[in-house]
Design goal:
Layout lengths: L1 H12 L10 E5 L4 E3 L5 E6 L3 E2 L5 E4 L11 E2 L7 E5 L7 E11 L4 E10 L17 H31 L5 H30 L9 H9 L1 H25 L8 H19 L10 H29 L5 H30 L3 H5 L1 H46 L25 H32 L5 H8 L12 E8 L5 E9 L4 E10 L10 E8 L4 E6 L2 E2 L4 E8 L3 E10 L5 E10 L2
Parallel strand pairs: 2-9
Antiparallel strand pairs: 1-3, 3-7, 4-8, 5-8, 6-7, 8-9, 10-11, 11-12, 12-16, 13-14, 13-17, 15-16, 17-18
Helix pairs in contact: 1-2, 1-11, 2-3, 2-6, 2-7, 2-11, 3-4, 3-5, 5-6, 6-7, 7-8, 7-11, 8-10, 10-11
Length: 592
């Protein structure tokens, strides 16, 4: 468990900015648009429904001063939009809109875009998407999410093991149940307290803000966490009832039904806050996610319970029962996993072309290793059950053999050696138990890593959502969204500059290119030369050069033709002096 937590922290710490699930589809006005008159509002459209914060929008004028605006809301009652009313006295120049919203699966996402009234300004406010993700808050939040998953797996899996597999002595498992319950309680409270600073991108100290905590308790993610806390009370009562019952008696249907209902309730608090709650086929997706999480818990949590049981009181019957339960769980996992993978990816290209797809491949590989370990455990289980039956068979044969009326003559008890044909005997049984325990322990270790990768996967933008955002429809006003890429570069000892490249409309065919160079202080910088080229490695196309012309303050090319959709490599070369230049590359997605 400790090893799994450490691995989870390391993996989650490297997830970076991939935790944004709602992708921006379009803006009105479009990014980089030049309008003849000031708009009355700005509207953002996302790939899924979003929640709005009090500070979801900040509008900066050409001088970098904040513009007073109205309250943010949804456009035309659509939950996948965000709209902000603008004042009527906007002057000419370039305005920057920084935004930060919360996606339907509870993860914050932020960004920024610009538009101009009349004509672009010679200088404009630096594009600022709002508060960056606080590293400490992000690490604590991700660790709490992993511990919550781990605790749920241990809690549900151990309870299912006790109820369905009926170990001879469930006492060693009570500590595991208590540890799982308290860990889930602590992790849920931590997630609830960290929710406000996680959404705002601030440090953990801001969690002490009573107003922010009150807002969290009324928002959907907070309500789901409160529901999970409320369910933990009846769960505790159920665990006391199950752990104190006679282990040799089969659980009644009412007990199993109550336990199943509580487990489903807990699983739904995750399903309603993750990928399943947004996108296509939401009811089916939430059902699949719930079954997937429950099957994971029954299998992986049961493995941990089996490891502890094998050290003390497990009999062959208990192991055989768990083997059947695990097989059923794996069947459910495969079925729901295939559906969820199809729903998250959307295309074969996303399997290798997106972070979500690559993480999914890692998970599939680890699950394959886990299934191989499970197959080894199943062979040990079969051998243990066979040996146990072989030990009992001679006793049953003696009972069936006719005896004299006076009974058999008394004999001194003799130790029975192992059966040379069946391998049965005390030494063989001990050997089989040790082998099974080692195999199950290996499964549990791999399972902890699988759970860590799964936690990272739930914090990664699905391939289907990324593709839908790229293939956005034309926004209001008929302006196609431009592709804006910011590339940083080093200016020797002078510091770090950036090139902001706008590709309009960012689709196949003819595109207009505009590039602006900013110095280390964020002001416009003049450079002797700026070159730009595009390459599509998958199709062996390019490099295609953009014929940039210095327009006095910015560089532009009327037309660069990108013939095919795909992930292109854009290379910018900035010459900062007569002898010094620097080249940087960025990958951009071009859609048809």
């Amino acid at each position: 468990m400790v090893l799994g937590a450490v691995l989870g922290l390391l993996l989650l710490g490297g997830a970076g900015s991939a935790s944004a699930h709602a992708a921006l589809s379009s803006t009105d006005p479009g990014d980089g648009a030049v309008l003849q008159r000031a708009p009355g509002h700005v509207t953002l459209t996302f790939s899924e429904s979003v929640g709005l914060r009090d500070d979801s929008f900040r509008v900066l004028d050409p001088g970098g001063h904040r513009v007073r605006t109205g309250a943010a809301g949804h456009a035309d009652g659509r939950a996948d939009t965000a709209r902000l009313a603008l004042p009527g006295e906007l002057g000419k120049g370039t305005y920057t809109v920084a935004w930060r919203v919360v996606s339907a699966d509870s993860h914050p996402v932020s960004g920024a875009f610009t538009f101009s009234v009349g004509k672009p300004s010679q200088t404009s406010a630096a594009v600022d998407p709002g508060p960056t993700e606080d590293p400490l808050t992000a690490t604590l939040h991700k660790l709490a999410r992993y511990l919550a998953y781990l605790a749920a797996v241990l809690l549900i899996g151990t309870a299912a093991f006790v109820a369905l597999c009926r170990p001879p002595d469930p006492a060693p498992l009570r500590r595991l149940l208590v540890a799982g319950w308290w860990t889930l309680l602590a992790a849920t409270v931590a997630l609830l307290v960290l929710r406000a600073p996680y959404e705002a991108g601030t440090g953990p100290s801001s969690a002490l803000d009573a107003g922010a905590l009150a807002d969290t308790l009324t928002a959907r993610p907070g309500v789901l966490l409160l529901t999970r806390l409320a369910l933990l009370a009846p769960v505790a009562l159920f665990l006391v009832r199950v752990s104190r019952a006679d282990p040799h008696r089969r659980r009644g249907p009412l007990v199993v039904a109550v336990g199943g209902a509580l487990a489903v309730g807990l699983a739904l608090t995750w399903a309603a806050a993750e990928h399943a709650s947004a996108g296509i086929q939401v009811p089916l997706a939430m059902t699949s996610f719930t079954l997937h999480l429950l099957a994971t818990a029954v299998w992986l949590g049961g493995l941990t319970a089996l490891v502890l049981t094998l050290r003390s009181s497990a009999d062959a019957a208990t192991v055989a029962r768990f083997s059947r339960v695990a097989f059923a769980s794996v069947t459910v996992l495969v079925a729901t996993g295939v559906y969820q993978s199809w729903r998250g990816l959307g295309s074969w290209e996303a399997l290798t072309g997106t972070a979500y797809g690559r993480l999914l491949l890692v998970k599939v590989l680890l699950v394959a290793v886990l299934l191989a370990a499970a197959a080894v455990s199943r062979r040990w289980t079969t051998a243990l059950v066979t040996a146990s039956v072989a030990v009992r068979e001679p006793d049953r044969a003696d009972l069936r053999e006719p005896q004299p009326a006076g009974g058999p003559p008394p004999e001194a008890p003799q130790p029975s050696p192992p059966d040379t044909e069946t391998g049965a005997g005390p030494d063989t049984d001990s050997h089989l138990r040790r082998g099974l325990r080692r195999s199950v322990l290996a499964e549990a270790v791999v399972a902890a890593v699988v759970l860590a990768v799964t936690t990272v996967l739930t914090a990664t933008l699905p391939g289907r959502a990324a593709d839908e955002a790229a293939r956005t429809a034309v926004p209001a006003g008929g302006v196609l969204p431009a592709s804006v890429t910011t590339i940083p570069f080093e200016i020797g000892t002078a510091g770090r500059g950036t090139v902001q490249i706008t590709l309009d409309p960012g689709r196949t065919g003819d595109n207009a290119v505009q590039a602006v160079v900013f110095g280390p202080d964020g002001s416009l910088a003049a450079v002797p030369e700026l070159r730009l080229s595009f390459t599509l490695p998958d199709k062996d196309v390019g490099p295609l050069a953009a014929d940039l012309v210095d327009r006095g303050g910015y560089w532009s090319a009327n037309t660069v033709t990108l013939p095919l959709p795909g992930v292109w490599t854009m290379k910018a070369t900035v010459r900062v002096s007569e002898v010094d230049q620097v080249s940087e590359e960025r990958r951009i997605r071009i859609v048809s």
